[in-house]
Specification:
single chain; mainly alpha; Chorismate Mutase Domain, subunit A; 3 helices; flat
Length: 101
C-alpha cells in the first residue's frame, strides 16, 4: 500500500505530518549524499591536505545558506547553525577522503 504524502499545509493529522517529515528526511539524506560526493571530488582534486579547510569559503557557504533561509521566511540564525555543523562534517569527511586516496 502506497501512502500519499501531503504538503504541510494540507495535513490534518499528526500521522500525515510525520509521514511528510519522514519523506523529507529521506530526501535530505539523498541530497547530503550528493553533497558528500562533491567532497570526494574535492579531496581527489586538491593537491594538498592543507587546502581542505578554507575559512573564507566556509563563511561564504554559511552566509549563502543564511540568506536563502531568510529569503524563504525561515530563521537565518538556526539555518546558519545547521550549516556550520554541515560544513564542519563535510571538512572532516573530505580530510578522511584525502587521507584514503
Amino acid at each position: 500500500m502506497t501512502t500519499t504524502i501531503l504538503a504541510g499545509p494540507d495535513c490534518t493529522t499528526m500521522a500525515e505530518v510525520r509521514a511528510g517529515v519522514d519523506q523529507v528526511d529521506r530526501e535530505l539524506v539523498a541530497l547530503l549524499r550528493r553533497r558528500f560526493d562533491y567532497m570526494d571530488a574535492a579531496a581527489r582534486i586538491k593537491p594538498e591536505r592543507g587546502h581542505v579547510r578554507d575559512e573564507a569559503r566556509k563563511a561564504q557557504v554559511i552566509a549563502n545558506a543564511r540568506g536563502a533561509a531568510e529569503a524563504a521566511g525561515m530563521p537565518g540564525e538556526a539555518i546558519a547553525a545547521i550549516w556550520e555543523t554541515l560544513v564542519e562534517a563535510s571538512i572532516a569527511y573530505e580530510l578522511d577522503a584525502f587521507d584514503r586516496r
